[in-house]
Amino acid sequence: MSHAVGRSGSTRPSLSIGEVLAELQPEFADLTHSKLRFLEDRGLVEPQRTAAGYRKFTRADVERLRLVLVLQRDRFMPLKAIGDYLDALDRGLEPPDLPGGAPRAPRAVLDGGAVGPDRFVTDQRRLRLRRAELLESVQVEAAPPLDALLDDLESYGLLVGDGSGYYDSDDLDVVRTAAELAAFGIEARHLRAFRTAADRELGLVEQVVTPLRRQRGPGSPAKAEEVAREISALCVRLHATLVRSALTRRGT
After folding, report:
1. Averaged confidence pLDDT in the chain
2. What string of DSSP letters covers 142-155?
3. What average pLDDT does this structure show over 129-151?
4. Phi first, then psi: what are they for 192, rounded to 5°?
């Protein structure tokens, strides 16, 4: 089941609670004002409020409500399980197939491998993994154990998370790549130079991009992001080329 369900605010609020009922009741005849308020009280949908306190729903809210009602009616899922399902979607995960199952990182992320020259930040919803989900998603045997490796990566500044206990797809790539390097005896402490080099490359990118971000105009933010991606890709290409060239000269 694939649904585009976003939290409130993803699009301009436009529908009143009466308009939402009028749209959904033909498909869900037992839907009432009180049931909608109950679903809101349970945190399954979070409509915005006007200054006068009236609820205003986005199109994303309506689709979210439709998904909740479908899961109730067709899958007989309790509200707690539906909440977990929505939480997985909100964090970019694949929801569990059955109640009580564990959400998973999307297959495209798990199969993506390490970051390459053509893979950089996109406008897609960022993956948000809990620590246990991150470790489960790495899918690489490592020595030291992954839990200890993750601690080491954080202690050396190679892994920072988002400050709220979640990790994204870039963090997953860092742990997975570090685990693969560990098989060759390369420890987390040996990787600090990569953090230093990345910070220096970021400084180069910011020198070019900051003036673009300050420009006024509807296309300025998009232009700045495009330039940042292009420079980043060039930096990665240059780094890979220099390493390959050095290995070639040494006959490795």
Report:
1. 83
2. -SS-HHHHHHHHHH
3. 85
4. -60, -30
